[in-house]
């Protein structure tokens, strides 16, 4: 097998010799990236759909992912699968990204930030008046009315 494989649409490329997954697992995960089902991936490689699902479950276990979208995202993050774009488009994307990012000048993480303190202008409503004549003593709370808002 070659060390890199490209999807049928030509947009994604996978490195089969990687430290994370076996080559077949990577190959079947590349099929997931194209939006294919286990049955379609199995049909492309002339194998049983159970073999594909077992390999994908092994990939889930190895990368500690929970679902197929998470698996594909993790493979992209680990650079096992990468987007295959022409260099000119990559340069244009980089230029637009750099121009759209706000540059923070003199941002020192050790410097304390300004905190805005807002003071209340009115008091909270009081539900029980302190001036009322309630019985005082150990069991006085049992005879007090309950206010629920």
Structural class: mainly alpha
Biggest sheet strand order reads 1-2-3
The proportion of residues forming helix, as a percent range, comes to 25-40%
Mean pLDDT, as a whole number?
77
Please state the CA-atom Rg, rounded to the nearest Å.
Answer: 31 Å
Largest sheet: 3 strands, antiparallel
Q: With helices defined by DSSP (H or I, 4 residues minimum), what is the helix count? A: 5
Distance between the termini: 71 Å
Order of helices and strands: EEHHHHEH
Overall spatial form: extended
The total of beta strands comes to 3
The low-pLDDT segments are none
Portion in strands: 5-15%
What keywords describe this structure?
149 residues; mainly alpha; three-stranded antiparallel sheet
Description:
It is built from five helices and three strands. The chain is mainly α and 149 residues long. It has a three-stranded antiparallel beta sheet with strand order 1-2-3. α1 packs across α3 (49-63), α1 (23-33) packs across α4 (68-77) and α2 (38-45) packs across α3 (49-63). It is extended, with a radius of gyration of 31 Å. The model has no long low-confidence stretch (mean pLDDT 77).
């Amino acid at each position: 097998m070659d060390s890199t494989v490209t999807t049928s649409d030509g947009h994604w490329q996978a490195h089969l010799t990687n430290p994370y997954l076996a080559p077949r697992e990577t190959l079947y995960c590349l099929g997931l990236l194209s939006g294919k089902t286990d049955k379609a991936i199995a049909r492309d490689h002339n194998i049983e759909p159970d073999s594909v699902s077992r390999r994908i479950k092994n990939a889930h276990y190895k990368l500690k992912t929970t679902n197929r979208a998470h698996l594909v995202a993790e493979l992209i993050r680990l650079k096992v699968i990468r987007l295959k774009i022409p260099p000119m488009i990559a340069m244009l994307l980089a230029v637009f990204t750099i121009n759209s990012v706000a540059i923070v000048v003199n941002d020192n993480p050790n410097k304390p930030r300004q905190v805005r303190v807002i003071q209340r202008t009115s008091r909270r409503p009081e539900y029980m008046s302190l001036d009322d004549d309630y019985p005082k003593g150990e069991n006085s709370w049992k005879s007090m009315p309950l206010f629920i808002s």
